[in-house]
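Q: I'm building a small set of examples for a reading group on sequence design. Run inverse folding on the following structure and report the sequence directly after it, with nothing in between.
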């Protein structure tokens, strides 16, 4: 598992060197926003009222 992660990370850094940091930063921001939305949904779903 560590070998796969290291290979992916090194490939990402090589791609960032070729393309600049614009695309990598864009991907990081999109993943962060989606992660925050999923975390908010997970935490807030427990506050639903159970009036049936």
């Amino acid at each position: 598992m560590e070998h796969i992660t290291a290979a992916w990370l090194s490939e990402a850094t090589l791609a960032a060197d070729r393309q600049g940091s614009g695309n990598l930063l864009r991907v990081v921001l999109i993943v962060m926003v989606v992660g925050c939305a999923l975390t908010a949904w997970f935490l807030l779903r427990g506050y639903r009222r159970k009036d049936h």
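Residues 2-45 form one domain.
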